[in-house]
Amino acid sequence: MVIVRKTKDGLEAARRRGRVGGRRPVVDDDKRAAILARRERGESIRTIAAGVKVCVGVVHKTLTEARPEAQGER
Question: Can you give the pTM of this predicted structure?
Fold first, then answer.
């Protein structure tokens, strides 16, 4: 259990210094806007993924995350 405690302590210390673990996001603001605009035009998810050069899952995730925002604006 010492390893677990030391790992958690190290991650917490890194967060305090402003370091975040994990992969960088694939979708930046420009790609997000392109995905949402293409979907508004009625393009399929596979077509959007190929055009923006991301996987289908990333398009799904982006659209799902944007859905609550669109509902909140109405």
Answer: 0.65
